[in-house]
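One thing: mind reviewing this one?
=====
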Amino acid sequence: MAELDIGKHCQVDSCNLKDFLPFVCDSCGGVFCLEHRSRDAHSCSEASVKRESHTVGDSALYPCSFEDCKGKELLPVICPQCEKHFCLAHRHQDDHKCEKLEVQKPRMTATKELVQKIIESKDGSKSKVRRGAKNSATAAKVALMKLKMHAAGDKGLPQTERTYFQVYLPKDSKTSNQPMFFSSKWSVGKVVDCAASLASLKNNNNVLTAKQFRQWSPNSLAKILKKVSIQVVLKKLRLCHPQTGDALRMDDTLVSLLAHPESPLYNGGNLILEYLDNECTGLEDVTEYITHT
């Protein structure tokens, strides 16, 4: 760290002490430390007074420049920054409210400003979603602490396995989104089942689709119909990527998606839950779910 250039060295050759509040001789104009401030101490070679002063008898008095202060000093006490005379009571920059005093910002101000810019950037963007991985990761870190305070999930999960998401629910849901946490070891299929349970959503993922129903042979179908009641459904609950809108594969694990090299999910990020046709590969526009104000 560079040394601050504050104060001046005493001009007495045998001293050369650096004084942060140096004294200027009213006769020779030299700069001296406390010990050599008097004319006799520094063997002053000049007799004329070069600075404004008030004379009382044989002594020169230096009035304080601070507003409403009537103090005077026998020797000039000059602020090295604004170069004005002050009395001993107002010699420090803080005491005379020095016009050149630099007030440092609080230590955390810069960090708070950075976080605020990230939040404003995240909320104010109206563009159709494909954000850079760096911006998404930063926004997720900012959101993670808030999610941890409010997220619902299996409280029996170890803290080291918990992965937090803001889950955006299907369009016809009463609530638009809900914070949740899941195990990073779970498959997407298990995450969907858990999310549906937490949000009280109808989940037909374990029911045969119309296509699967048609694939059964008449004999096999007759045998199954005797044992179980089969519902034919056209749509299933799917988990979709918050940036690409792609429906995630049911057998993929969260830990593998978090480590995806091109379009990873983020702990503290978003997920979208929606009912999709069995042939549908994803959502066309994720901004219909993840809105920004």
